[in-house]
Design a protein that fits this description.
transferase; 313 residues; 14 strands; single chain; eight-stranded mixed sheet; elongated; methyltransferase
Length: 313
């Protein structure tokens, strides 16, 4: 009896009794002697391989093997696991390739490009992160904003003493500028721990304003919804700066949260930096829009009390 070792073909074995029993039984396998080893017209051995065009069901395979007196378990039990093992191996290899191709996150670093523009800490350099993950207010925009606030407050040389709230503070450059120009205290709201420990706090320490500052390491939305919890009963601020990452906020929702949070007083000024194609309302709570200026792709809106608008005119 001969055995086929091909793993892709099912080998079928036949006894010489089957082939020589009758012409009817032998008819399907009568082939010229050149195809088989023959001796004096008698077949001594037959090797036959069966490869269907479409895969047979397991039940059909078993029936076919049993019809020739063969044990189906000897041919069907080992074939399936081999295919599964190969497929699983490929999946594992693909998984390893994906893991190996994953690039490590770049290390975050800082540089000193910003500076304080006026007041006690004028010309002091401030840290800012390299890259675009934190985008500080441009110095030309910041300088214009403080000039408008000082003129509106009736004191062109400095700000009226008060408390400043710096939302989305990042480097803290706006709140630091406010303390340098006359504010008695500044609250900074920033949710990135790395920015707080490596940029914001070192800037406060370098300018000497650490004792005049309060840092809130929470999302701005949480701070606005729970302002009384973070700043106490006297939660109104004299100045509020809003400099969010442009593409990550809805300005309509943000300004609505600010107007309903209780942090706005009758004499509060709000500075909002926003991108092109953003519709800003003419009022925020009890405050009116005093000015709206464009600096390239950046817009600057300032809201304040009605008396400030009359004074500017």
């Amino acid at each position: 009896m001969a055995v086929s070792s091909s793993p892709t073909l099912s080998a079928l074995y036949f006894s010489t009794n089957l082939l020589s029993s009758s012409p009817a039984a032998r008819a399907p396998f009568d082939l010229p002697c050149s195809s088989f080893a023959c001796r004096r017209g008698h077949y001594t051995a037959v090797v036959c391989s069966y490869k269907p065009k479409s895969e047979l069901a397991t039940g059909d395979k078993r029936s076919l093997l049993e019809s020739y007196g063969l044990d189906p378990n000897a041919f069907l039990s080992e074939s399936a696991p081999k295919g599964r093992t190969r497929k699983e191996g490929k999946k594992t290899e693909r998984g390893k390739q994906v893991t190996e191709e994953k690039a490590p996150e770049p290390e975050r670093t800082t540089h000193r490009l910003l500076q304080v523009l006026g007041g006690k800490a004028k010309r002091k350099k401030l840290l800012s992160p390299k890259g675009m993950d934190v985008r500080p207010m441009m110095e030309v925009v910041k300088g214009s904003a403080f000039d408008i606030l000082q003129a509106a407050g009736g004191c062109p040389a400095s700000l009226r003493p008060g408390r400043w709230l710096d939302l989305f503070s990042g480097t803290g450059s706006v709140g630091i500028e406010a303390i340098s120009r006359g504010c008695v205290q500044a609250h900074f709201v920033e949710m990135d721990p790395w920015v707080i420990s490596n940029v914001l706090q070192p800037n406060l320490d370098w300018t000497g304003f650490l004792d005049l500052s309060v840092v809130h390491a929470v999302p701005v939305e949480n701070f606005l919804k729970q302002a009384q919890h973070f700043v106490g009963e006297d939660r109104t601020f004299d100045y509020i700066s809003v400099t969010p990452p442009y593409m990550l906020v809805d300005y309509g929702i943000l300004m609505d949260l600010i107007s309903k949070s209780g942090i706005i007083g009758e004499n509060t000024f709000i500075v909002v930096e926003y991108p092109l194609r953003t519709n800003m309302l003419d009022s925020c709570g009890c405050l009116m829009k005093l000015t709206d200026r464009r600096f390239g792709r950046t817009h600057l809106a300032i809201y304040g009390p009605t008396w400030a608008q009359k004074k500017r005119k």
